[in-house]
Specification:
With 323 residues, the chain is mainly alpha-helical. The protein folds into two domains: 68 residues, no CATH class; 242 residues, no CATH class. It is built from 16 helices and two strands. Strands 1-2 form a two-stranded antiparallel ribbon. Helix 4 crosses helix 9. The longest helix has 40 residues. The model has no long low-confidence stretch (mean pLDDT 95).
């Protein structure tokens, strides 16, 4: 296929939006938004306002270029700015969680052996030997390559100092400080069940498999936020496993809203609730969840006849009763 869409100047981009029914009341401000944020970044935020066509059975046929009446460009800009602040608040929680889990993993493994992270026999044999297919490296081998890349790439003074004094191999509690969230979550997934259970229990989660999946989903969430991608109404690809009914009171209340587990897992609010749970386990006096609540309730009003809502994030109606 040959790509046939031409390059458009910012004024041409603005003209294109106007031709599709987007209302612009200040051309100078609109051009500045396109120049600062980019047409395709903002397109993710005016996408909900595009008109949809359905067949007689209610199946979506197509999403038209035209938008609903009274849709202003500023609607998309305000939604983008709301999402930007949401990502920043989520990163605040993820930093706390990532650092704490990193310490937990390094401390537990370090008690077994100074270099436990380099020794496959300190991990779960089956988990560490998993492979994505014939000829593919095992989980442990793939993780080891990633770990070494992160450690060798590190320019931290403490890494340079340790290697000058003690040699190239880093103890697990030193090495862990060079790992990203993905490396930590992957190592956790290879640990023995008793060790995964021990750490999961610290955070009030009685299901080690669910907790393992939480870390994987949180790493996915971190990547969304760190790469400035849309979050607020995203379809979540890397979905967490949910513990059984009765394991977590707040989760039972979410389920009581009438949403199925599949519906909860598909939207970002569930992972935000997981962040809330973990942050409160780290510090019961934290106000992070209160700040997030305030921000969610500040979802901007839209000029458009099509109204966006928190429900697009998977927020159930009763959320403030337990949040």
């Amino acid at each position: 296929m040959t790509y046939s869409r031409p390059w458009l100047s910012f004024p041409d981009q603005l003209a294109k939006l106007k031709s599709r029914g987007v209302i612009v009341t200040d051309d100078a401000a609109a051009l500045k938004s396109l120049e600062q944020f980019g047409y395709y970044r903002l397109s993710a935020y005016w996408y909900p306002f595009r008109v949809r066509e359905f067949d007689a059975r209610g199946k979506l046929l197509r999403v038209k270029d035209e938008v609903h009446p009274n849709t202003h460009l500023v609607d998309a800009v305000h939604l983008y700015l709301f999402d930007k602040q949401l990502r920043l608040q989520v990163l605040d929680a993820l930093e706390r969680i990532e650092i704490a889990i990193r310490v937990d993993v390094a401390h537990l493994l370090g008690r077994l052996d100074t270099f436990a992270h380099t020794q496959q026999n300190q991990l779960h044999k089956t988990f560490a030997n998993k492979s994505k297919g014939p000829g593919k490296p095992t989980a442990f081998d793939a993780w080891t390559q990633k770990r070494l890349n992160l450690e060798n790439r590190s320019q931290e003074d403490f890494v340079k100092h340790y290697r000058e004094k003690h040699g190239p191999d880093l103890p697990v509690w030193v090495a862990a400080e060079t790992w990203d969230f993905g490396a930590v979550s992957q190592l956790f997934a290879m640990m023995k069940v008793k060790h995964q259970t021990q750490i999961a229990t610290q955070y009030g989660v009685p299901d080690w498999e669910a907790f393992q999946s939480w870390l994987r989903s949180l790493n996915y969430l971190r990547n969304i936020c760190a790469h400035h991608s849309r979050l607020w109404n995203r379809n979540m690809v890397d979905q967490p496993i949910l513990p059984a009914v009765g394991a977590l009171e707040w989760l039972d209340k979410m389920r009581a809203s009438g949403l199925t587990d599949d519906e909860l897992k598909a939207r970002p609010f569930l992972i935000l609730a997981i962040c809330r749970h973990l942050v409160l386990k780290l510090h019961s006096g934290s106000q992070w969840h209160k700040r997030l609540e305030t921000h969610l309730l500040a979802l901007p009003e839209m000029n458009s006849d099509y109204k966006v809502s928190l429900q697009a994030m998977g927020v159930p109606e009763n959320w403030q009763d337990w949040w």
